[in-house]
Amino acid sequence: MGGRLEIITDKAVRKIESGGKGRVIDDVLRSMAEKIAAAAPPKWRRAELRGFATGGGGSGHSGLTYEPGAGGGDVDLHAELCAVHTLAGPAADHLTVELVVEAKGRFEAVVSESLERAHGGGFLYVLDRHELPAEPAAFQQGPAESTQAGDPREAVALLGAYLRERDRVLGRDTYAPPPALPEASRAELAMGLPDDLRALYAHIDGDGGEGLLDRHPWFGLEMLVSQSRPENRWWAAGRAWRDHLRNPLITSTGPRLAVRRASDHPGWIPFATSTGGDFLAVDLAPGPGGRSGQVIRVGVHHGDGPVYVADSVTGLLRRHVAALRAGAYRIEDGELWIDVEEPEEEPRALVVAGADAASMRGMRPGIERLTVLNAPWADFRPLRGTPTLWQLTVENVPGADLGPLRDTPVELLDLAMDAIDLWPLAGHATLRRLTLRTASPVDLTPLVSCPRLYGLDLSQATVNDLGVLADLKNLLYLRLRRAQWEELWERAGHPAGLAAAELAAEPPRERAWWWSVDRSYHAPEPSLRTAVKWATDLAGRSADVRTFAGRFARGGSASR
């Protein structure tokens, strides 16, 4: 079977029009099963595809494996995956297509917009894709300094100096930036921009694609306004639960708290592009330690937060001029590469292990992520008052007093300890997501008073009473094992307000358990079948899970 047009035939269209979409999807899945079987190694018994498709003709998979022991397969299923996406009807950015193929000629499949494999094992089911946790920026204050660092006159003078230095090092005087727009148009379009950038637009209208700012083409005013519209901020669109769970911490760079901790903000105005999906932007909504008009880098490669570049466009130009005058550049194939010096950053992550945990050796005010490992005891008192400690992971520590953490802004807390007492964290003002790993029973009651707590992972914990979860009114995300989910539903029903839920992987067992004496296959839990049943129990009649099963042709003989 070749391209997508061969899959969705006129006959298929007639089936769709008569209400037969499911039958057409079944046909496409059967074709996929035949391809997978045709490419299988000798003596295979089972194959599993973990595929997905997206709008706009995108598809892929996180694994095509054959059992027993044959590793991954190489089968082109792009056209078929795209066809399933089209036939499944309106879908968001990601449609799961899981297919199990048996050598004896049977296949089973699951198609869902809401159910997918979770990062790190298990399954994620999204109940409400539009309900995501508020980003830290929502809780941050504005800047303490109200003035801009940029200077309009200096910026214009620096632009002239930069163009002259650029002509000098290139040995030519042939480039002329686009002229400024008429004043009436310019005044309207540039309204609200920092003073220095607005002054520059009074002299030139961007750089016409030349890449003046360290090979970043500088937008004309009309393009700047267009790129700032919400519908055109494509690099920030589509942030989903899977993205949030894989990268829950939004960090910062530059001066402490200079930039708001967000994946995007309407006050970030792109004015130049790397052409690779990233942008230089002026920041009109800085954090408490920043100044309006500072320059940051945003885009597809900065999902964990923007990067601080300069205190202003003026400062950015100043660096360009200084680099050229200092000879910090090179010319390759007629293109000028300027080594623009950016602020040096101290490491903001720290790992403390063993006896060093007693004093938190190496801890300083700029640390944002702290990991404490393999220590007989951890003393958290040195953490009191740390201004930016947002993530703390404790691994293989018998015990510790969590009380000092009340005086930290920690948001993400992962505790793997012999015993965990949560009462010292009662009412913690900033705690947002908590992971517990312990065999000793934990009392969850103190968490009821934590106002920002949205996420819990209890899959590796023993809990006194899971019914307490019903009292966590802001809980959006919950990760449990199958038995824990069943206990929760029995004790407290289905928690209201959950937007995303995970069915965690069960603890690993010996491989002999997966393959019995007669070599029949027993899938690791949760299996796909288990996940489908769990998702149906979780979401009820509104569950977005479609299942398919049938037979496929083997060796040219069709069996359906």
Quick recap:
The chain is an alpha/beta fold. It has helices spanning 4-7, 10-17, 21-38, 78-87, 152-170, 183-189, 195-201, 221-228, 241-246, 313-325, 482-492, 511-514, 528-539; strands at 46-54, 58-67, 71-72, 95-102, 106-112, 115-117, 123-126, 268-273, 278-283, 294-299, 307-310, 329-332, 335-338, 349-353, 369-373, 391-397, 412-417, 433-442, 455-463, 477-480, 500-503, 546-551. The chain has a 10-stranded mixed β-sheet. Strands 3-2-1-4-5-22 form a 6-stranded antiparallel β-sheet, with helices on one face.
Can you characterise this structure?
This protein is α/β, with parallel strands linked by helices and 560 residues long. Helices cover 23% and strands 23% of the residues. It has 13 helices and 22 strands. The strands form four sheets. Strands 6-7-21-20-19-18-17-16-15-14 form a ten-stranded mixed β-sheet. Strands 3-2-1-4-5-22 form a six-stranded antiparallel β-sheet, with helices on one face. Strand 8 and strand 9 form a beta hairpin. Helix 3 packs antiparallel against helix 4, helix 5 crosses helix 7 and helix 5 runs parallel beside helix 10. The longest helix is centred in the N-terminal third of the chain and has 19 residues. It is globular.
